[in-house]
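User: For my dataset I need records formatted as: sequence, then structure tokens, nothing else. Please produce one.
Assistant:
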Amino acid sequence: MTDILTLVFRTLSSQTGQNKDPSAGPPSPAPRSSALVVGEHRLSRSVLLLAAVTAASELGVRVAFFAQTQIQSLPECLQRCSATQNPEGLKKITFSYPRTLEELLQQVASLHESPCPPSLIIIDRLDGFLRGAVAGSHLGFHSGDESRAAHLAALLCDTAAFLTEVLEKRGSSSAPCRSIASFLSDADSSGQESRDTSATDPILDVLDRYFQARCTLDQDRSYEAAAAAAQEAWHVYLSGTKIPDDREEDPALAQEWKLLVFPEGLMEFKLV
């Protein structure tokens, strides 16, 4: 999944920067099959949509995209990218809108029944499904959410592993099956400008045990956005997570990008 994210960043970097070759620059980090995007919802959804379009158009793989709310319009940067994408590739993206955690679990579990299984599974806002998992719970996470998060993440990993075997047996060049999801913590959703970075989110800790890489979106409130005539500036950290089978982060995976968001909705990535 990290190879797809890196391809997305390089593509948007080459459109507005001096480097016109998306393959130029440092080599892609070692690909890992699952990644978690953490941070602001508006940007994380844009990153997920860009990953879906890139995978379908550039790599020619089938994508299953799950979201709790229907996507009304594509981000401006994606609309401009779509003009140069292969329209046949875009047809490879299937959008599904489960309303509850139970519906999401059922739909992910049934992916193996598809005659053309996806090579990329994307879930927008895991937190939205988890917060709505208990009747009457609308704000914050509650008791039992850690086990529900583990159940969902484990199912996603198991499904991706099973689909990888299916694709490999068919001799498909689309293997392995990757997965990517986004998560918005309580601290991020409350709009806090400053928070205790040493504090841990128990739900995020659980998800980190299943997702092999993390893409963190952290707003840069320095002068750089104004200096670049941009509306916002963000740090994008692509890094490995420490899981039982991988106790030390792979230094080849870690990368930092600067994301500039302009008033007209365009996005530009710069490798730091």
